[in-house]
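Table S7 (text form). Paired inputs.
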Amino acid sequence: MGIFAVGRWRARVGRPGGDTESEFEFARDGSALLVVGGKGSGTWKSTGPDTFSYRILEELTEMPGTIEIAQEAVLRGDEFVSNGNAVVRLANGTTAREAAISITAQRLG
C-alpha cells in the first residue's frame, strides 16, 4: 500500500444541504478515521499512483443509525478531491436517504 494519503486532513464536505467541515486521519495500516465533524472509522487503500479510495462508517448523533461514506480520491500534492456517496441507514437497516457528496481536503500533518 502506498503511503501518500497517510496523515491528517481538513476537509470541506459538499452535501445537498450545504457544505460542512470535517477532519480525517489516514494511517499507514490502512485505517481511516473521521475525527472532526462526526465520529467514524473505516479503511483506505491506494488505487493508483495518485489515487485512493476510502470507506468510513459514521455514527449518527441525532438518532440511532449510521452514515456509510464511500469515496474515490485524486491526490494533488497536499490536497485531495474525492467524490462518492453517503447513505444514511437507520438502526433497523432501512435506508433513510442517499446523496452524492464531494470532498476537498488539505493535509494538516
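Next pair, protein 2 of 2.
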Amino acid sequence: MRDPIVRALVWVLRLVLPARGCHSAPATPPTSEPAPVSPWSRPWTAPSSRDVRAVFKDEHARELPELQRERAYAAAFARLGVDYDYPTMPLGSLVKPERVSA
C-alpha cells in the first residue's frame, strides 16, 4: 500500500516542482528572433521644438490664405523630413455643400 502512495506523491511533486540537475530542461528555450529593441535606446529623430516653432511663426506664411498657409506649412515640414497632413485645416473649408452629391 505504501508503494502506490509514494509513487503517486512523487508523480504529483514532479508536476508541481521544477526539475533540477543535469536532466532538467533549459529554463528558456532558445529563440531565433532577437530581443525587442526599446524605442528609447536610439536618438531622437523628429525635428526639434525650435524648428517646429519657426515653421508656425513664419510671417510670410501667416499672411497667406488658409489653404495656401497649410500648404506652406506642409512644404516647410517636408524640408525637415516630416510628413504633415494638414492637422489644423478644418474640414468645412474643404467640403462644400454643392460638391457633395447624395
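Residues 2-16 form the longest helix (15 residues).
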